[in-house]
Write the structure tokens for this entry.
Amino acid sequence: MRAAFISHSDCGRHDTGWGHPEHVGRLRAVTRALREDPELFHSVEHLEGRHATIEEISLAHDPAYIASVRVIAEQGGGRLDADTVASSGSWEAATAGAGCVLTGVDLSVSGVNSRSFSAIRPPGHHAVRNRAMGFCLFGNVAIAAHYARQKHGLQKILIVDWDVHHGNGTQALVESEPDIRFVSMHQWPWYPGTGAADDRGPHRTVWNIPKSPGMPRSDYVESLERGIDEATKGFIPELILISAGFDSLAGDPLGGFTLELEDFDALTRSLVARADSWCEGRIVSALEGGYAPERVGEAAVRHLRALGT
């Protein structure tokens, strides 16, 4: 299986400043780590994604909000919330980030590259329908889930989010669809304060797995595996989407989980085995958080290698 590594140069145009945790150095660390692994570098398909259209972003977001992001960028940028900023290049970056994940969906469904990892920014899993939040402008993975259903006619979608923060935006943007199941393991209590275990969504298609910081690594891995098992009882997904947040690595400045590189390798291989059994191997993964750039690069490479096996 030849996995695709998808990115877009415009993702670097989202200028948050080097003092902001979500800066362009995160992507540079991923590409550097990939170059430093020649075997993997030559074994994956390197692709530039495309820009998502306004119509595609509107599958998950309010058109007035989408327009406001574009206007703010065209006016030189500004602060969207206490943590989230936009620059003059943020419109191009955000539409490119979403478009890369949609490219991954197209490749997966067509069978050209059944599995992919999109190295993108800004991240997406906190953005809600009508506002930015937590460094996120558009819900890249949520948009991809709706796109897979509308464009390709897929019905059953599984989203797995292992970012250390709850994917509140993703949940809000997909929980009204009974055939999209969402599993999020996240630190609790922690930003953004959502994701209680008893929050199952209106159709009980949400599995929130709140966990304390500083636990043994195996506790996190086993809890997420159990959550995926529960979410897929009697439910065979046609596509798996991953919100690959690497701020759940030990030592991340914005999280307290203890996961190591080997754990992301194991979790990815487990999902690959499931996808091979369920849906012809189809997995589309997208970068979310992770704020120790060198560690993010290492983890992304391990994840991508596991996707390609």
Q: What stands out?
A: The CA atoms of residues 70 and 76 lie 10 Å apart. The chain has a mean pLDDT of 98.
